[in-house]
Structure formats: structure tokens, C-alpha cells
Amino acid sequence: MVSLRWLACAAVFAVTWLTSSGLSVLTDPLPLYVIACAMVGYNLFFYLAQRNMLAGGGDVDRNIFLQVTFDLVALTLLLYYTDLPRNPFLFYFAFHMIIAGMYLRGRAPYFFAALATVMVGTVMLLLYLQWIPAHPLHFPSDPPTLPPPDGLDLLGVFVAFASALWMVVYFTTSIRRYVDRAHAEIRQKEKMLGIGQLVAGIAHQIANPLDGVQNCLGRIGEKVKDDPHLTEYVQLMDEALERIERTAKRVQAFARPRGITLQSTDVNHAVEATLEMLGASHGRDIRIRKELGDVAPVEGDPYTLQEVLFNLCTNALNAMSLGGTLTLRTYALGSRDEDQMGSVAVDVSDTGVGIPRVNLERIFEPFFTTRSDSGGTGLGLGLCRMLISEMGGRIEVRSALGQGATFTVVLNQVDAKSVATPPADP
């Protein structure tokens, strides 16, 4: 932005000189020279601030925010002094909307769209009311005396300008979110594939000697069964070996290639089947609610979807050791989902301890777990995300400490041309 602004400053000086001295289109170039000098001044400030950030200090987002703000004000002044309603460079505001949409998060891009709309709209209104002096450009085909600005013409230009800005911001931020999500999924898949190959070899190396140790321990147990103390020690070792074996099997299952066949899947049926698998193992202090909406079938694998929901429900139950409510809810997102129009969502919510904000971005990383003391391996959520991604969907999470967490599985509605028909029951 700083490098481009040097070119913009030079262009303002050159165009001002050309239109005032050579073409005689601009009658009063002094305000433009003043604005151009101001642009040079604040660009020098941002150049020095950029060097400071490269040295390790400064807030990049704040710097970009200030640069866009200064540019919008400067561009508005430049256009005001060069017949703003008729100036074709009015739509240069779109460049700043693209920059804000690409580099700033949250509501900042929409703030700049509103700021530009208000500034340009205010100038047009004041020109129409003749409360501020006009600075028209004089083209060779113009009459000697230009009439005052027409209200309908100003309104049309303003509507076209404002709608263009807001559409640019909307599409830029939507594309940026989609690209960010795609990059995150690609990095996740690459990480999962690499780790899968690694853990498969480790699990294989563990499983072979583990079988021998368990056999030997069984024989030792038979020899010492008359000694209660030694029998207790043997039992403890056997339980520890079984725990190692279960972990090794989970790791092997995680690394094993999986095949997913997309077909028409009823998410409500998947929720019902998941609740049946949970059974009564959730405890008396846990209350389970289901809110099944009238949703269309989705593209997915029914058994894989049940596996993912079961894993999410298990994590939710583990987060409510003192009791609480587990809620499974299905609903259609419709136009509320900007990335997957017409998608269907499944919420798995709990009222447990919640997830700290610092962990929200890491919970899908392989081997990241906060339950290592209770046997958690950190593979479940990463695997869930990979499986849902293979079905063309995504998993989102939101949480607050002490209030619980909600995992949302989003899948595309079924498309008869792209999915297989599930086999009929015999």
C-alpha cells in the first residue's frame, strides 16, 4: 500500500498539472496540490511505521486500518475539488474496499463501506443544497455556464456508487473466508496424512511386542495366583497393557485409509441412531434433548456421520462430569450460510465446562487433548473434521467458559445428480 501510494501521489501531481496547464479542464489546482502534499506526508509516516513493524513492533491491522481511513478522506477531498458527481474516478473507492476485505477481519470492511458511502453522500447532498461551493471541471463540450447539479442524477450516481461498494465488500469478505477455510482444511489434511503414516508405523511396532508381553504376563499370573499381592500387581500390569493396546488400536484406526461413498443421508435418522448407540451410558445426571427440524437429505455417508456425531456426543458427555444437558438439533441454514447455500446443520451442544478461547483454534489438531490423564489421545476431533471435509462439509465450534460448547456439522443438501442412491432394505 505504501509503494502504491507513492505512485498515486506522483499521479495526482502529474494529472493536476496536465488538466490545469495543458488541457485547461481544472481551473483551481491549488487544493489538489495541497492534498497531494498531505498524501506524501502521511505516506512517509506509514513508511516509517512499516519499517518499525518489520523490526518486530507495531500492530499490522491497526496500521492498515489507519492507511485506508486516510486514503478514503484524501480521495473524497480530491473528488470534491474535481467535480465529484461527474468524476469517473469516483469508483476508485472500490480498491480500498477490496484491500479492507482482504486484510481486515470482523466488521472493519463494512465500516469502511459505510464511511465512504456517508462521506460521498454528504458531499453530494451539500452540493445539491448549494451549501458548499462547487468545483466543476470544464470540458470542451460543456456550455460556458454549468447548471446546478440535478437531484435525480445525483441520486442515481449515489445509488450506483453505494451499491457497488457494498457488493465489493460482501464478495471480497466472502471469498476471503472461503479461501481461509480452504487453506485451513488443506493444511489439516496434509498434517493428518503425514501423521497417519507416522503413527501407523509406531502402532505396528507397539502391537507386536505387546502381544508377547501380554502372553508372558498371563503365564506369570498363573504361577502366582496363590499370592494375592502378586496377583494384584499382575492385574494392574494387565490393565495397563490393555490400555496401551486400546490406544494402539485407536491409532491404527486413525491411520487406516477410509472410503466414503456420498449418498442421500437423513441427518435426523443419523441423530436417532447416535442416541441409540449412546444408550443409558450417559449417567443419571445427564439430560438429553433432541430438536429435529424438517430438513432435506444431505450429501454424506450415513455411517460416517453417525461416527462423527457419536464422537462429538462422547466429548460433550465427558465435559459434563457434574451433570448437564446434551442437546442435538438439526435445522436448515438456507441463505444464512454464505459459503454453502441451502445447507443443513447439526448442533451438538453441552452445558459443560466450555473450551478456553486459546484452545479453540487447536482442538482439531492431531494429538492435542486436554484429557490426557483420562486416556484422551487427541485424535477424535481431527478425524471428525477430516471425515466431514471428505463429505464436502465443515465443522464449526463456539464456546464460552462455564457455559458449555456447541459443535456444528454443516453438510450440503442432496443433489440427485451427484450422489448415489442408498441401497433398499431387503
What's the structural blueprint in terms of helices and strands?
Blueprint: H1 2-22, H2 30-54, H3 60-80, H4 93-103, H5 108-129, H6 151-223, H7 228-255, E1 263-265, H8 267-278, E2 286-292, E3 298-300, H9 302-318, E4 324-334, E5 343-349, H10 357-360, H11 380-390, E6 394-400, E7 404-411
Parallel strand pairs: 2-4
Antiparallel strand pairs: 1-3, 4-5, 5-7, 6-7
Helix pairs in contact: 1-2, 2-3, 3-4, 3-5, 4-5, 4-6, 5-6, 6-7, 6-11, 8-9, 9-11
Describe it for me?
The protein has 426 residues and is an alpha+beta fold. The protein has three domains: 2-187, no CATH class; 188-255; 263-411, Heat Shock Protein 90 (2-Layer Sandwich), CATH 3.30.565. It is 58% helix and 11% strand. The protein contains eleven helices and seven strands. The protein has helices at 2-22, 30-54, 60-80, 93-103, 108-129, 151-223, 228-255, 267-278, 302-318, 357-360, 380-390, and strands at residues 263-265, 286-292, 298-300, 324-334, 343-349, 394-400, 404-411. The strands form two sheets. A five-stranded mixed β-sheet has the order 2-4-5-7-6. Strands 1-3 form a two-stranded antiparallel ribbon. Helix 2 (30-54) runs antiparallel to helix 3 (60-80). 25% of the residues are buried.
Please give a quick description of this structure.
This protein has 426 residues and is of the alpha+beta class.
Helix content: 55-70%
Oligomer: single chain
Q: Tell me about the largest β-sheet.
A: 5 strands, mixed
Shape: elongated
| Mean residue pLDDT | 80
Rg on CA atoms, Å: 32 Å
Low-confidence spans: 416-421
Q: How many strands?
A: 7
CA-CA gap between termini: 66 Å
